[in-house]
């Protein structure tokens, strides 16, 4: 019996899997460049973007190893196969299974990176990790809207303070709009020695938590974080 079909099947499989993954990596590089462009326009996505990159790296590492095994195993089957004596059926089954797993994992990765809700999912995941680590110092929770209202009050106090002391830092050097991000406002406070480093760090952590809450669209936040926002607002008011 002629067993050339095994030779052609697995040699084609090795080439197809390698070409598929190469195309996948090209698409991933394009997605990363688009993500970087989005992050440059919205600095509140920095932590979420870092989480996504870390998640994608883990997935790609697994996919790279799986692809390598699939290609090597297919080539081994091609090498061991003979026209008069076909390679064992169990090895063919294992090789076919690994090839299919590599393609399936690649398709699953594609679906992940093009998911329009990837930022919300990443924010929710990071927020869950923050809460699991005890951020806020209490297990009690409060409505997210209450936290966001408190944050807006804090942000308004900082903006009013900067206006009063003429310390605005433009959002973009070539921009004519009077618009400033939260991070730039607290940077202005630190650069002009209006706050000490510990308070700046606290304001920075509050801002990061706010970004996670906003992009994650969660319903509840830790009560301790709400207290921290209100305490920070009190310290800004005390600056005069």
TrEMBL record:
Keywords tagged on the record: Membrane, Transmembrane, Transmembrane helix
Lineage, highest ranks first: Bacteria, Pseudomonadati, Pseudomonadota, Betaproteobacteria, Burkholderiales
Name of the featured protein: DUF4145 domain-containing protein
TM ranges: 6-31, 62-81, 93-114
């Amino acid at each position: 019996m002629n067993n050339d079909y095994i030779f052609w099947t697995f040699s084609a499989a090795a080439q197809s899997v390698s070409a598929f993954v190469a195309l996948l990596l090209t698409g991933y590089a394009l997605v990363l460049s688009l993500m970087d462009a989005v992050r440059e326009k919205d600095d509140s996505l920095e932590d979420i973007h870092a989480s996504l990159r870390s998640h994608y790296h883990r997935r790609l590492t697994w996919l790279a190893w799986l692809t390598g095994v699939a290609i090597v195993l297919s080539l081994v089957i091609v090498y061991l196969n003979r026209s008069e004596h076909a390679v064992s059926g169990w090895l063919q089954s294992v090789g076919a299974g690994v090839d299919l797993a590599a393609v399936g994992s690649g398709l699953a990765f594609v679906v992940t990176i093009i998911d329009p809700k990837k930022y919300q999912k990443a924010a929710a995941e990071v927020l869950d990790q923050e809460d699991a680590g005890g951020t806020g110092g209490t297990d009690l929770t409060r409505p997210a809207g209450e936290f966001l209202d408190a944050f807006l009050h804090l942000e308004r106090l900082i903006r009013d303070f900067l206006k009063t002391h003429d310390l605005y830092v433009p959002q973009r050097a070539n921009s004519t709009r009077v618009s400033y991000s939260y991070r730039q406002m607290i940077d202005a406070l630190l650069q002009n020695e209006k706050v000490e480093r510990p308070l700046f760090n606290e304001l920075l952590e509050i801002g990061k938590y706010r970004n996670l809450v906003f992009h994650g669209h969660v319903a509840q936040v830790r009560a301790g974080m709400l207290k921290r926002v209100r305490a920070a607002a009190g310290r800004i008011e005390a600056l005069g």
